Amino acid sequence: MKVLLTKDVKGVGRAGEIKEVADGYGKNFLVGKGLALIATHEVIKKYEADQRKKAASEAQEIENLNAIKAKLADIKVLITKKLGNTGHLFGAVTKEEISDALKTQHGIEIDKKELDAKHGIKTTGLHDLDLKLGHGIHATLHLEIKGE
User: Which of 24, 67, 92, 125 has the maximal Cβ count within 10 Å?
Assistant: First the structure.
């Protein structure tokens, strides 16, 4: 019996492969547990069409992320925080504050989890932060902190 694997199966193959397996193993285990589909012509065509759609949407997403990266190279985000008597910030600038400021000032929406600020920003001045946008694309965010 020929099956199309929908998930990786140890000792059999990887997702997307068509394998010849014993009838009982294919029907009772692989198909029964949702690890494979019986490899009919229609099932194979549908799987290939789904893979093409997934690849096209991934390519579109990568294109959008590269556009965001290009926008971020040209802009600077300004955040104003309250200063203490010594001239230092009260607390630190959080990732959420940076994300909100980027959205309100430039209309670019990013998740705070994409910001790579290992240590909280506790000083005024210019800071460059690394953004992990996904699909291996990194961008630099120029951030300026001013005191009130």
Answer: 92
